[in-house]
Amino acid sequence: MADLGIRREDKNEWERRVPLTPKHVEILVREQGHRVIVQPSDIRIFPDDDFRHAGARVEDDLSACRAIVGVKEMPAEMLVPGPSYLAFFHVIKGQAYNMPLLRQALDQGVTLLDYEPIVDSSGQRLVFFGRHAGYAGMIDGLWALGQRLAQEGVASPLQKVRRAFAYDTVEDARATIAQEVGREIREHGIDAASHPLVIGFTGSGNVSQGAQEVLDELPVVEIAPEDLATLLGKEELSRHSVYKVAFRRQDRADFARFLPYLTMLVNGIYWEEGHPRLVTRADAERLWATPEGPKLKVLADLSCDIAGSIEVTVRTSTNGDPVYVYSPATGRETSGVAGHGPVVLAVDNLPAELPRSASRWFGDSLLPLMPSLIAADLSRPIDQLTLLPELQRAVITHQGRLTPAFQYLDEFVSAQGV
Q1: End-to-end distance of the chain based on CA atoms, in angstroms?
Q2: Which pLDDT tens digit goes with each residue over 385-412?
Q3: Other C-beta atoms lying within 10 Å of the C-beta of residue 43
Q4: Cross-strand partners of 220
């Protein structure tokens, strides 16, 4: 029996990440003595041979593994008795589309763990891709802004920014943006037609922090939200800087007052019904009521909540077709950057655009938990499993039963009739 299986990702052609890189596998095999099987893949960012050289076996059959890990959720038919399974299963909010998967886990007597509830004693998540969603979202947002300005006939240093997946690593992307774009802004400035270029951020978590780190590679001057209206009308504002505004929680009420001063808004906050919206459809109708339109060009909605904080996020976009223009007049959207309305970036799988860096970061966090998962005796009752507390909190089903913390999911399974 192998100790650990790493499944290939098959959700879409863009999903090239791994939960553990060859370097992590080498530690498990050569330093800790574990046996690891990796499923072969033609699209994974790390080739099969890299895993072979790390000491893993590369083969399709994972049925003899004690634990199986992946990035995205596995097909329901893959869940069979025996191993424990760890992935982003997207069930803990009662997501309807994955209730059949949860039903399979219950019917097959499976032990299912999810990355999202892996938290420390203070509730802080330990294994996540959020910062890389911010990195990729900001890179794509700058690209989208450069493309929109070019479509409007405005020259911009941002036209040199490529999509996130065109860079090998986050470090490569940041260095290139700093050298090519940042240097041009310092030396030649922003075109008068788009000056001052103002980018606003919401949220204080990993997504927003990652996005801000990318922007900070440019010559940035930070402005307080309350100073937007007075500062941005001053002629002495330098065309050799990009202006950054980090909004706070208290700024979200009556957020519409800030919109006329922004060139791009980068949204990194999770939205729930009843929370205030940042950009409503009525806001969009008002801003785009004139033929020339507002200063605001791009809404980079990294949280991707449909009709949520950004109400004009009417659908998610894809890695292959990342942006659309929302028409305030019709309420419809059109792919691309051309049209009378804001460009909306709402890719719901952004970390996949930086697969090498994202996998390394993720695996560094996950690796310390692997020996505990591998060693767990799944025949024991849930309260007697010898799991680290961080993993114990993440057990959704054990031996085909919902654990106490996730009993609430029973009503979602029943509601779907599965």
Answers
A1: 33
A2: 999 999 999 999 999 999 999 999 999 9
A3: 13
A4: 242
